Amino acid sequence: xxxxxxxxxxxxxxxxxxxxxxxxxxxxxxxxxxxxxxxxxxxxxxxxxxxxxxxxxxxxxxxxxxxxxxxxxxxxxxxxxxxxxxxxxxxxxxxxxxxxxxxxxxxxxxxxxxxxxxxxxxxxxxxxxxxxxxxxxxxxxxxxxxxxxxxxxxxxxxxxxxxxxxxxxxxxxxxxxxxxxxxxxxxxxxxxxxxxxxxxxxxxxxxxxxxxxxxxxxxxxxxxxxxxxxxxxxxxxxxxxxxxxxxxxxxxxxxxxxxxxxxxxxxxxxxxxxxxxxxxxxxxxxxxxxxxxxxxxxxxxxxxxxxxxxxxxxxxxxxxxxxxxxxxxxxxxxxxxxxxxxxxxxxxxxxxxxxxxxxxxxxxxxxxxxxxxxxxxxxxxxxxxxxxx
Length: 389
Hints:
The protein is α+β, with helices and mostly antiparallel strands and 389 residues long. 31% of the residues lie in helices and 24% in strands.
């Protein structure tokens, strides 16, 4: 290939993928506690398999939330996804709950008291990323992978395509020339389907959803368009494969286009910087790019458990910066308080806004009127820009 030309691939999975079922349940539990008490502490892990869902983890929240309430939340989440199959049915599945109280040692480090501000819920590194490849300032391969599956899910939920099942995956490979995406070279979609549908019928159901998502003229060659390459996908979801919370961290973020700190998001309240600081890093990176200060931007932040201030803030614009990167790192910290409390309050994260994040990516979404996806706003872009005027 010519210099500056390369192929890059990202994948997504649908809300009905076993791991995403687990993420959805964990975040639904989190929302339940935050509704009852916005300062609840939640770290909920979910396992789902054939007709069984198991919750485990630690909670500090109001006793008004009972196990019966949580079981109802679990069943509603599975029903909303669309599972009414013999091997996984919202009404008939077994639900087991093993949630215990948060460790007092962890609570002591995280809670504010006296002159001590809220500390980070754990040590770790978090990354945020933005680029000019799409209107949402997301990398194009992951954005299109998400949108293909969202389109299929909307058709399934509306009844337009009743032959589709909840479980599906997509994978988009794009050709880059001079570091800009120009077309798809291959697309893979695997989707659960009714037994009566043939492979060719499924292929033609999927085709318009791919063509409508990709920009005009970007569709891959016919022999590189793969739909259910195994030939059959009837058994799926947790009946076909065990699901666990937090196993799709690259799908949740940037599709491999950016570094990842390793921490998962779902089931964690905003005192856990794995989640809140990753949201803040995306917020900052997106505003840097939206301000026209760089075409690409990655932000890394790091924390120590129980300590309020970030240990480091690193900025890399891949040589695309229009301003001094060293000054940019300083300006960012002047504009945004990156302490756990500062992030939580600035982005208003102590609200039940998390179940909706569990599928189709935590980033590149449209901010909601009730505060969902607040980290996708570009409301500090002018402030960042003015610092360099």
